[in-house]
Amino acid sequence: MTTDHTTYINIPEAVGVFDSVETLQAAIYDLRASGFSRYDISLLGDKEAMVEKLGSAYWRAADLEDNPDAPRAAFVSEEAIGELEGAVAGGFFFIGSAIAMTALLTPLSTLAGSIAAIAIGGGPAGVVGALLARRLGNHHKDYYADQIRQGGILLWVRTSDKDKEDIAVKILNGHSGRDVHIHGWSE
């Protein structure tokens, strides 16, 4: 039997709750521009992580902002999700095209036949890639929508000293963060 426990460190954290992805992103971008590492910034884990770590009880952001057992996740920007969607869709198109092209690039094939094979082979693979990319993007949007329904998107920021605490609190408040405060530990 294994025991699951969370390790806490004595580095204070600023906490804030956001009502939109746009204000959350703006706060995170300002935190990063002010010298906070991406490793200092975390969000609440997704629904599966919540159920795994805390059970299936109903939860609200206000109940979790100072709960050391709340699962954490790294921030992924909308731009990064867009790039990943493009890479997934484009990668599948490329693989399908490469397979078709390899099969038809023999001494007996014609240029027109090779182009047709690339279009025929890459098209279906591109569709599969586009569907997977859309699913990825929808999962990301659902993650935020679910948190907003539960009272807001939680954001934690590790602060190594009093100056960092003041900067983090100012930035979170400046981007419409609610219930912004410091607690004396972090995960």
Written description of the protein model:
With 187 residues, the protein is an alpha+beta fold. It has two domains: 13-76 and 151-183, no CATH class; 80-138, no CATH class. The chain is 56% helix and 13% strand. It is built from six helices and five strands; from the N terminus they run βαβααβααβαβ. The protein has helices spanning 21-33, 47-54, 61-64, 78-104, 111-149, 162-174, and strands spanning 13-18, 41-44, 72-73, 153-158, 178-183. The protein has a five-stranded antiparallel sheet. α1 runs antiparallel to α6 (162-174) and α4 packs antiparallel against α5 (111-149). It is globular and about 40 Å long. The chain starts with 12 loop residues before the first strand and ends with a strand.
